[in-house]
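hey so u asked for the seq, here:
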Amino acid sequence: MNELPNHVDIRDVSLRDGLQIENPIPLSAKLELLAAVAATGVREMEATAFVSPSKVPALADAAELAAALHGFPDIEFSALVASPNGAKRAIAAGLRSIEYVVSAADSHSRANVGRTSAEATAQIAEIVAIAHDSGVTVEAIIATAWDCPYDGPTPSGRVLDIADAAVQAGVDRLAIADTIGTATPRRVTELVGLVRPRVGDIPLGAHFHNTRGAGLASAYAAVGAGITRLDASVGGLGGCPFAPGASGNIATEDLVYLLRDSGIHVDVDLDAAIAAARVAQDVVGHGLPGSLLRAGDRILG
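ran it, structure tokens below
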């Protein structure tokens, strides 16, 4: 394990990954959640996705939500896209940062975007060109980096091939994602150790789900292996609609609690993150799995 970093960047993904498996909620409720998450001090947020409304109806109002983002100038907002057309729509709506997801597993890729992993990988260069022509940055996210709900364990070579293609295409950032929450610290350390040398100076992030209770441990292992960018969602809201059984992003407030107590600085205020998790719970109308949402912070002496 490497020496722990002094600072870790947290991107809150509750508005996109968090809401994508929920029943659609009004734009006004999303704006309430947006304001609550923004109040935590977070510097990066994943705002929405420019994908087919028929496949992800909860995010059908992507352009309308994007129009409200100018009210939070201190936050870098990003949006997920699944195709060159989605990239064009996101840019037209004013986003200055987009994420393109490529699943390392063929069956999940077909379920998610109707293409094989190789076909999705082949579009990275086109999406990067579209974005860079407009001065927009691109992050490639490698989904099912550890396991696929249909194909089982993902060979690390498939992840490395996508990482190589993304680097060659000129992406600005790269991330590996545990889409179904099966990663463990040992496996995280191993894969990060393989991917990091391939990306050079390109920032490498990670995205974990707590579906099987190992999400926070995996995030901590990733930080120990040199990752300094992590995704999280207030209250643990979210999951993947195209991966059966996948639920529960790691909770932003739980991650802040862990990192802060480990001597690692984060930009997110813990009390405000817990308050935002309560707002998330209210707007979706059901309980959320975040631990601090239930137990609260300890009383500091």
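Strands lie at 9-12, 44-50, 76-81, 97-103, 137-143, 147-148, 152-153, 173-177, 204-207, 229-232. The longest helix spans residues 185-199.
lmk if thats what u needed
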